[in-house]
Amino acid sequence: MKKQHYMTRDERFQLEAMYRNKIPVADIARQLGFCRQTIYNELRRGFYIHTCDLYDEVRYSADKAQQIHDYNQTSKGRPLKIGCDHDYADFLERKILTDRFSPAAALAAARSAGFKTSICVSTLYSYISKYVFLHLTNKDLWYKPKRKKSVHPVQRIAHPKLPSISDRPEWINSRSELGHWEMDLIVGKSGSRPVLLTLTERCSRQELIFKLPDRRASTIRGVFDKLERRIPDFRQRFRSITTDNGSEFLQYEQLRQSIYGGTRFQIYYCHSYAAWEKGTNENHNRMIRRWFPKGTDFSRVSQKRIAAVEHWMNHYPRRILSWCCPADFALVV
């Protein structure tokens, strides 16, 4: 009966001994349990020229055959799904390295560009880890998917005198209406006064970035005063703000106060140490950090560059938007 496995090292040594004793191939195949063609293939793999004093002799080496077999095994496996489509690979590299796209967003852009080759996100991450690309490595990824660590629940509290996010209506939580924003600050180099104020619309994921000379509450109020003067239907476009308990955001009544009288929007405050409660804005801040890493001195960053990053954010395709861009749902020009 034929054996359904590769010839082992011991079987190769048996073959070497029998071939040296000039046993016919048919008998060798019968004794080892392989077909004759397998024996012929194995002999061809291990043949070498042995030089004697008077003549050259063809012999079989089990060690040589085993070495070749082991080497051939290293190239086993399925071929790369990316194949020989170098244009596709270059496109993905350019999107991730130059345009700062995530692997998922780069694949979506490739589909929109009409490439016939297609791979999934997991495969792309695997290729990056295995150095399939010429320049792209894991070091170029801002963060890779990680398993969530189990944490023990900690009791969180919001500012006792201010509206808590727990009181935020469900129709705002469901993201079914435009005009509800999340707000935070991005702080730069230690000792540097300028900061970035970031506003993220919860439904469309639109991003607004403002460079501020300092982080005082009056400076932040001034941003909304300017927006209210510039936008005719401000109260429809800014219905609510969700932010954290930073001291610069705690002037609740003054921040809500409209320059035309009355209130301009409602404010909700996250629980302490629970930044995930305004997760959309936190995720956007991580994206902004692709351009302005921690330690950036914002006094040296021009308004033009900040506007360019804002434009990039609002034209960055999102999975949650079916790979559309926030600019497709823009509220503020």
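^ that was protein a. below is b, sequence first then the tokens
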Amino acid sequence: MDDTADILIIGGGIAGLSAARALAPAGHRILVLDKGRGPGGRMATRRVEVGGATLRFDHGAQYLTARDPSFRAVVAAWERDGVAARWPAAGADTWVGTPGMNACVRAMADGLDVRWGVRAERLRREGALWRVEAGEAVFAAPTLLVAVPAEQAAVLLADAAPHFAARAASIRSATCWAVMASFAEVVPLPDTFRSDTGPVSWAARNSAKPGRGGPEAWVIHASPDRSRALIDQPKEAVAAALLGDFFAAAGIAPAAPLHCEAHRWLYALPEARQGEGPLFDPALGIGIAGDWLHSPRVEGAWLSGRALAQATACAL
């Protein structure tokens, strides 16, 4: 038997959860599917045991900003609840999740029916229902919302909603390699490092963020050009190369890491058209949202998801 709902949402990141939370008060049965093992997505936090200590690396989004009044209210609530804290090292009006960036996603998912570890593989419309095949499981609902990266949406929607798939296929996202490294001694640098020209675009002392602490821990993001050059290299080789890039760019002597690993974000930074809204087809009962349909920021994903919820509510 199919697992049924009023609204199915594919994607348990910021956009999908924003849509779910906006629609939930109306009493709809909402089911969110996400292929990840738990809350995070591109706001993921990696836990690593090093020498008996637990380190947390925010290897995706490093921080968030809030300019829209409605999103500022959400972030203020997170701050009151201890889910987020200001981090001046990244700039004015910046926040991080506490004790990791994924805390914000976890807070948004709280109280919702989110099925983690479920990968949507095929969509089909049968009569008045959408059916989503995910391995041996099948989920069904009259309304389907898709909130995943553009490249993934293009594949998933190719047969079910080719007009939306074409829009998603027009987006290109920059890849980003991220390195997570810990050291026995403090690295002699400020808490953040930025560059618009070198192989390393960003590095941050993750252990200095609010709610972290512990041994010296850094997250290093390669530039789009450097990430593209290393796109298919083994993780171990990438970690070593980018660690060398980091010390060279910072102009300091290399230090041997206690822990060093790399993670590739294949769809890290979409070429979004600023301010474009979500897309919803009331005749088919399907819609799409994401930062790539608004602006490539955490706030852009949240606003896109909320706008899709509003469009959906008007059609129900």
